[in-house]
Design brief:
By secondary structure, the chain is α+β, with helices and mostly antiparallel strands. The protein is built from 16 helices and twelve strands. It has a domain of 213 residues.
Length: 488
């Protein structure tokens, strides 16, 4: 009588896959869980759609730009089945829902990031503002208008988005975005919005009727109401005006703006001068800043916030003039600081944090699917700009946790997701090959044993892939309980 070998495994292939060294870490889902993204999702209208799990739908929406595809439509046609069997219509219908408060959900994510990495302890916490343009040519694309692109030096048709972020020496946190519709060649939303009182409807009305400077002030106040604490506000010359400076001062923040060479006047020794006139007075007194190739000169003056010389509201400010020694012609710039005691080096140091928002724009346009969902629906555009920010924060969280660079973490997550994608797709091929081999052994092995082996292999592989994506029974069970309790 043969002795049974209790150590014999009927599923050696899947057993090996389940070894610790072989399992693929899903770094993106680590960030989702560590930032506790889904515990408050129901507060922002994020609920399951057509019987599909919220986690499944959200995860599929989150990952498509990281899979090196050109659009959500392409992802749905080629790789969606590896994660989600609901089809592209389910995802697009989810993004078109007008009751989802994507801005609120993004703020929640930002606050989780803010707390997790203790950014309140940073000595410089600057509210940073800038805008970017995404070229859009389609006739049926809502909220498109003509905007001047400073990079190209000409007007182009597209969507302009105003961005607000928190810049610190430790990290950049994208806090808020607002689409802005200009006044020229406007294409309004047609048949896209069912209710202008909805979250998306209100956002569209702001995009259409509020100018960018008013948007900036509303964004700043909203972020402070949400509990974020700033020390400074920084913005480029487009936003350097009396109203914005007055708003920053009223909120108890230090403003640092790059200013235009316009008609705005400053009071010096009882006389009003424009920035150009002041530069003419001080340009011979400019000196090379230590360790740089820039000549600078700081001058304390006063700015009339009312713009009424009969009833002035004078604010002491510091103007910092700067010009490069490498340029032959006079190409100077001027910065305004509402703190007259800031030295030249400190003004430059704080304003340099604005570069982080430029890096953010580059990332979301190249890697995070910024307004690339290939639809003219405004609700999808509204979702897109906020989802890009959430994707960015998930990567940034892993960067800070691991100590690796942002690009390294992003590439690592892309490789992990690509591996899981192809693992799911190739499993169907391997299953056919394995089953074919097993079928040839029917004369040596009982059919019931072959059926058991097939079942064990299929179950093992499916469980492994679902667990790697956190779409397994354990996570689904927890989610169903949360839904039953009314918290999801």
């Amino acid at each position: 009588m043969k002795k049974s070998n209790k150590n014999l495994s009927w599923t050696p292939f899947t057993d090996n896959l389940k070894q610790e060294y072989a399992i693929v870490d899903n770094e993106l889902l680590k960030s989702i869980d560590e930032l506790d993204l889904f515990s408050k999702a129901h507060l922002y209208g994020l609920k399951k759609s057509k019987g599909f799990s919220l986690r499944q739908v959200m995860f599929s929406i989150m990952i498509w730009p990281l899979l090196t595809v050109t659009s959500l439509n392409f992802f749905c046609g080629n790789r969606l089945s590896a994660y989600f069997n609901g089809g592209k219509d389910v995802l697009y219908d989810f993004l078109k829902r007008q009751n989802i408060n994507w801005r609120g959900f993004r703020f929640y994510t930002a606050k989780q990031f803010y707390k997790k990495h203790e950014l309140a302890k940073e000595t410089i916490r600057a509210a940073t503002f800038d805008d970017t343009i995404q070229h859009r040519r389609g006739k049926n694309v809502a909220a498109v208008s003509s905007h001047f692109d400073h990079t190209l030096g000409k007007h182009i048709m597209g969507q302009q988005v105003l961005e607000m972020g928190l810049s610190t020496p430790k990290a950049y946190v994208p806090l808020d975005s607002q689409i802005y519709i200009g006044e020229k060649k406007v294409r309004f939303a047609k048949k896209n919005l069912d209710d202008y009182r909805s979250t998306v409807g209100k956002d569209y009305m702001d995009a259409r009727f509020i100018d960018k400077n008013q948007m900036l002030r509303e964004m700043l106040k909203r972020a402070i109401r949400k509990g974020l604490k700033f020390t400074h506000t920084i913005a480029d010359s487009w936003f350097g005006n009396r109203d914005n400076i007055k708003a920053v001062i009223s909120l108890g923040l230090v403003g640092i703006f790059r200013m235009k060479r316009g008609n705005l006047q400053y009071l010096l020794n009882g006389r009003y001068y424009t920035a150009t006139e002041l530069y003419t007075l001080i340009k011979r007194r400019m000196r090379l800043s230590k360790g740089t190739t820039y000549r600078t000169f700081a001058l304390n003056v006063q700015l009339d916030l009312n713009g009424d010389k009969k009833k002035p509201d004078l604010l002491p400010i510091r103007l910092l003039f700067s010009s490069s020694t490498k340029q032959r012609k006079e190409n100077w710039v001027v910065f305004l600081s509402t703190d007259v005691n800031l030295c030249t080096e400190k003004i430059f140091q704080i304003y340099a944090l604005r570069w982080s928002i430029e890096v953010y724009f580059k990332e979301i346009k190249q890697h995070f699917g910024f307004l690339r969902e290939q639809t003219g629906n405004y609700a999808v555009h509204y979702a897109s700009v906020h989802l890009c920010a959430i994707r960015y924060m998930l990567i940034a969280h892993r960067m800070l946790e691991s100590g690796e660079s942002f690009g390294t973490v992003r590439s690592k997550i892309t490789k992990q997701l690509e591996l899981l994608t192809f693992a799911r797709l190739l499993w169907e091929l391997f299953k056919a090959l394995i089953y074919g081999v097993l079928d040839t052994l029917q004369n040596e092995i009982p059919k019931s044993t072959i059926a058991l082996i097939k079942c064990k292999i299929t179950t093992g592989i499916t469980d492994f892939l679902d667990s790697a994506l956190q779409l397994d029974e354990h996570h689904m069970e927890i989610e169903l309980k949360a839904e039953a309790m009314g918290v999801l």
